[in-house]
Amino acid sequence: MADEKQRALDGARVDPDGSRLITQQGVRVDHTDDSLAAGDRGPTLLEDFHFREKVTHFDHERIPERVVHARGAGAYGHFTPYDDRLARYTAAEFLTDPSVTTPVFVRFSTVAGSRGSADTVRDVRGFATKFYTRQGNYDLVGNNFPVFFIQDGIKFPDFVHAVKPEPHNEIPQAQSAHDTFWDFVALQPETLHAVMWLMSDRAIPRSYRMMQGFGVHTFRLVTADGRGTFVKFHWKPALGTHSLVWEECQRIAGYDPDFNRRDLWEAIESGAFPEWELGVQLVEETDEFAFDFDLLDPTKIIPEERVPVLPVGRLVLDRNPDNFFAETEQVAFHTANIVPGIDFTNDPLLQARNFSYLDTQLIRLGGPNFAQIPVNRPVTEVSTNQRDGYGQQRVHRGRTSYTPNTLGGGCPVVGGDFPEVFRHYQEKVDGSKIRKRSASFADHHGQAALFWNSMSEVERTHIVAAFRFELGKVETVEIRAAVVAQLGRVHADLAAAVAEGLGLPLPDLGEPASTQSSPALSQLGQPTGTIATRKIAVLVADGVDGEGTEKILTALRERGATPETLAPRGGAVRTAHGPDLPVDRVVSTMASVLYDAVLVPCGPDSVETLAADGSVRHFVAEAFRHRKAIAAFGTGTELLAAAGIAVDDGDLVVEAGVVTTTKARDEIPDGFVDVFAQEIAKHRAWNRDTREVTA
């Protein structure tokens, strides 16, 4: 009995398998479908404690959603350092001891939208990691952009108010394409670097599993003897960094608003555990002023060509939460949750976050005891003099709740040896009390130009299109012109292209704010190779070449891909040879935007049925227009032709991401799947001319 009570106090279930209905007071009830009433048609009685408990809890099930980062998804996993290479820089055990594997919880999120908004909006993505270390909880609360929109946290309410739905009509939801946001941008040029990221493909990731993460701020690593080193944190996905295209984002929001959330969940459930590599950029304190920007400015990056990223460890997510609300919704991240060996810098945005996050948790999670919620608990002991308050789960024993004391034997005691005890990094601080931005934060256009200079032509085209779309939604012409004028101070080519699309006169154009570039900033310049977890739509109907299809499906699965058969009806389709082929999805319930590639197998009857369906032809043509890899074998090429895609006959033909062969069944060339996989791994066939095909 004592053990059961302790488990209850610790937040565990008294009835672990949930097989019995038991009230929150531990009482089993005989009925839960009708209220206690005075007669079968009489009034409900106030003494019905079960009804009161059940309905009262329901009435209070919704807690305030996060003001930002409300829409999220999370998972558990673990982090392991590669070796002790960081031991000379930090006393943080979880970063330096390869024999220690640290459990983690990671939450990904959008920023601007509410909990009910779609996953695929154009937005920054949160990438927050809670490390349950043996030295305490460490929260790396980052984003998929390495920079932020403002330099000082006092501007954060203004920024969020500007990007949120406009207050007079609560429109638009989860979008930056409206007047107030761009009015803020035009008047606050410090936003321009982050805005360049926002208008790039980085703002529309294909998957959380294919998204980089950054700590944003410059932090400090600290050794046991108190020596500090500046550090920036980077997460690099094992699957590569890939994005959607804008038209896909809009269509996916209708077909599957949970696209990224579902993708993460299904990958983990299938055993395809997402992985990232943690890397760090290290800057010695003697080099603090060696750059043409301020290390404490959160709107700036350190180009990787200047300070390479040092790989230090591996993150794997391998378990989905048991309950979304209890874990993903109630997890509380805080930039001030640090451990011995890591400390802050005087970055003014970071300093503000250290104040703000605690306030957020207090209002959202009902008081000061939110750290006792299971997902927030450290794996280490907790012993404080803090008592009472909403949500108190611990039963404290003893007479004393103050320090110093004699009645409690002086406990809990303070002090001890570093690194078991946290000690703040010591630095001299002096100066006048003043409200003034450092002059070293004054360049707002240089790194925005650096980002533009670093993009490929494809990425630049997408950035221009994004600016045209967003500013095209702005109703106030003066705001559009003001933003274009700011872009003119970044780069003349960018401003001219955006102005032309908006029908605006060119502003005064000078020299680019920077001629430097950083190839590491271009997604398309990064290596590719794997097709693991890529989803491939296989279009089939009765009469399909079952033998050839199974051969290719097996080969794709062996490479880690996830092919799904789509047919006009569910169940199974009859094959031309061999057993029936199971159907995974009904094609009318899906769309090409939900897949990474398309395969059309042979089978005259199958192809005839599919080609007669306009939605199937649209499926193929749309995938082609979005530059996805497409393959067809045997008569499957006829469906491509019916969709307006020109193909050449031959044993193995590859043209701008379209892979075809006239062979079928056991005559399919051995290299067919290899070439198809290579095209999928490229993510898009950017060299494809899509002008002749309309979806």
UniProtKB/TrEMBL annotation:
User: For this chain's UniProt record, which GO biological process terms are given?
Assistant: hydrogen peroxide catabolic process; response to oxidative stress
Location in chain, cross-link 3'-histidyl-3-tyrosine (His-Tyr): 334-357
User: Does the keyword Zinc feature in the UniProt annotation?
Assistant: no
Q: Which domain of life is it from?
A: Bacteria
SUPFAM superfamilies attached here?
Class I glutamine amidotransferase-like, Heme-dependent catalase-like
Question: According to the UniProt entry, where is the signal peptide?
Answer: none
Q: Which reaction does it catalyse?
A: 2 H2O2 = O2 + 2 H2O
Keyword Nucleotide-binding attached = no
The entry's family comment says: Belongs to the catalase family. HPII subfamily.
Protein name per Swiss-Prot or TrEMBL: Catalase
Organism for this UniProt entry: Actinokineospora auranticolor
Q: Tell me the classification of the organism that encodes this protein.
A: Bacteria, Bacillati, Actinomycetota, Actinomycetes, Pseudonocardiales
